[in-house]
Amino acid sequence: MQFNTWLSVGLLILVMVNSNQALADRAILNVSYDPTRELYEEYNRKFTRYWQEKTGEKITVRQSHGGSGKQARAVIDGVPADVVTLALAHDIDAISEQSGLILAEWQKRLSNNSSPYLSTIVLLVRKDNPKGIKDWDDLIKPDVAVVTPNPKTSGGARWNYLAAWGFALKKHDGDEAKAQEFLTRLYKNVSILDSGARGSTINFIQRGIGDVLISWENEAFLALKEYGPEKFEIIMPSISILAEPPVTVVDKNADRHGVRNIAQAYLEYLYSKEGQEIAARNFYRPSDPEIARKYAHQFPAIDLFTINEVFGGWPKAQSIHFKDGGLFDKIYVNQ
Amino acid sequence: MSTFKQYSVLPGFNLALGFTLLYLSLVVLIPLSAAFIHSAKLTWPEFWSTVTAPRVIASYRLTFGASFAAAVVNAFFGLLVAWVLVRYPFPGKRLVDALIDLPFALPTSVAGITLTAIYAGNGWIGQYLEPLGIKVAFTPIGVFVALTFIGLPFVVRTVQPVLEDIEKELEEAAAMLGATRWQIFRRIIFPTILPALTTGFALAFARAIGEYGSVIFIAGNIPMISEITPLLIITKLEQYDYTGATAIAVVMLVISFILLLIINLLQWWVHHRGIKV
């Protein structure tokens, strides 16, 4: 064979190897909810570095954010998510039931109900707290304007609603009718129902709407960090709900893309000391006791109840409160 | 066959009609029929209770009411804008002319966010309206403002060319015969542009009914008060209630179709009456 032929064969092989390498540059997509943007931006940088050191492979992690329900629907409708990190277990259950992309027993696969970090619901008020808001009780005063998103579309809003309900239930010794009346009065003070938590935060902070924002704890801290404590104050209510935002691998997508090992490691690394530190720095309560102690000064200890204790789990809370014709709808329709 | 196909000197009728039907089916009819088929999964009582729930009824009222009001306002002011642009020379006319198309080009969500920022209590306009007790952003008025914004170019752009084509001689002849300016407008100009004006009105109205992006930011989205029907469809989708969402969509489609049909008939009637006179 002539030299030229060998050269072209050599070139061809080189091209093939190169294109193989391009294919081997694997990527995973993390579909997440609204307020985790900053958390995952930092975590993705850390994780890609960690993965390269461990395996020598260069990978890309892409992220997508929006209201938790909307994101879950996007995954059902075909967004090729390899992992989902959503606001509540119900949304991941929905993906599992509606599309079969996730195994039914997903929540048992990682420790702590598959929730690597925790959060709660707090109240954010304007500087010097002009309306003197101290607890959930103050939100039903007639002159207080409350900002919270729509529980039908926002995971955070559902936690907000349930936190208020839990407070009212405790205050009235478990009287459900009284709790419902409390929530009705609270939502009378709400003039905008955004579809996601971030939209509500923007309305409260930038548009100057309302006296108090019911918010994820991490979102409230973030607002404080971005806009300064000279503008806003965080009020810790006497009691609130322990929010457990769960994570899981989207089995069928991850297998189809051949990235299961990355997706798995991506979620497990969230539980590592490094992952927990990043969560804490982004104002999520760490689940690791040691890191939690280290950041205890940042997260005031408040009385927290879980959704299982008060509502008997997500499926039950969902069907009683949030489904069409449920208690949340009655608040508006019966007015 | 011959009764169906009227004789035309223009060749290519069969081919052109074939392509028209194929194109309409692919682009319009098939997607729309999918909505009907999907909602057929509901039984009739289920369908009826979904589309007549109090929240849904309140949203029809807002969507169709605000759309109609916005289209009426746009028909009036759009006509005025077109008139000024056609009849008077003034500096910066081309710039104004180009501005009209902006609501077409602007992504609707950008329009929504901008309008919200302006009309919110701390916005440029909102800060002056709020002390007067007028709240625009996050109320039904905000919905009306957003729909007016997106609908304006439809009226201006349909009326403008017709106004440009009106023969000056007609008006001159009328003036010579002793008609007043008001008579000239009422008897000559207005009847000529009326078909174009109703088209512009219908387009602005139809656009407003389906509008989502710009409204959603300014509406406030409170059940029974400031929820538009497209939002309810999205809300149902986000609760994984696909059939409920399509049921409401079907109702919107049917109502919109009937309204547009009425407007088209009206237009046809206006046109034919105009020819007889």
UniProtKB/TrEMBL annotation, chain A:
Q: What's a single GO MF annotation on this record?
A: sulfur compound binding
Q: Would you tell me the protein name for this molecule?
A: Sulfate ABC transporter, periplasmic sulfate-binding protein
Q: Which UniProt keywords apply?
A: Periplasm, Signal, Transport
Can you cite a GO biological process for this protein?
sulfate transmembrane transport
Subcellular location per UniProt equals: Periplasm
Q: Which organism is it from?
A: Nitrosomonas eutropha (strain DSM 101675 / C91 / Nm57)
Q: What top-level branch of life does the organism fall under?
A: Bacteria
The record's principal subcellular location, in a coarse class, is periplasm
GO CC, sorted alphabetically, is: periplasmic space
User: Could you tell me which InterPro entries the record lists for this protein?
Assistant: Sulphate/thiosulphate_BS, Thiosulph/SO4-bd
Organism ancestry: Bacteria, Pseudomonadati, Pseudomonadota, Betaproteobacteria, Nitrosomonadales
Q: Where is the signal peptide?
A: 1-24
Family membership, please give it.
Belongs to the prokaryotic sulfate-binding protein family.
TrEMBL record, chain B:
ABC transmembrane type-1 domain ranges (all copies)? 60-263
InterPro entries in the record: CysT_permease, MetI-like, MetI-like_sf, Sulph_transpt2
GO molecular function per UniProt: ABC-type sulfate transporter activity
Source organism superkingdom: Bacteria
- Topology of this chain in the membrane: Multi-pass membrane protein
Question: What Gene Ontology cellular-component terms does the record carry?
Answer: plasma membrane
- Transmembrane residue ranges: 12-37, 57-86, 98-120, 132-156, 188-209, 215-234, 246-270
Coiled coil region boundaries: none
The places in or outside the cell where this protein is found are: Cell membrane
Keywords assigned by UniProt, alphabetized: Membrane, Sulfate transport, Transmembrane, Transmembrane helix, Transport
- Say if the entry is tagged with keyword Transport: yes
Q: What does this chain do?
A: Part of the ABC transporter complex CysAWTP (TC 3.A.1.6.1) involved in sulfate/thiosulfate import. Probably responsible for the translocation of the substrate across the membrane. Part of the ABC transporter complex (TC 3.A.1.6.1) involved in sulfate/thiosulfate import.
Query: What binding partners and quaternary form does the record give?
Result: The complex is composed of two ATP-binding proteins (CysA), two transmembrane proteins (CysT and CysW) and a solute-binding protein (CysP).
Family classification: Belongs to the binding-protein-dependent transport system permease family. CysTW subfamily.
- Protein name according to UniProt: Sulfate transport system permease protein CysT
**Which species is this record about?**
Nitrosomonas eutropha (strain DSM 101675 / C91 / Nm57)
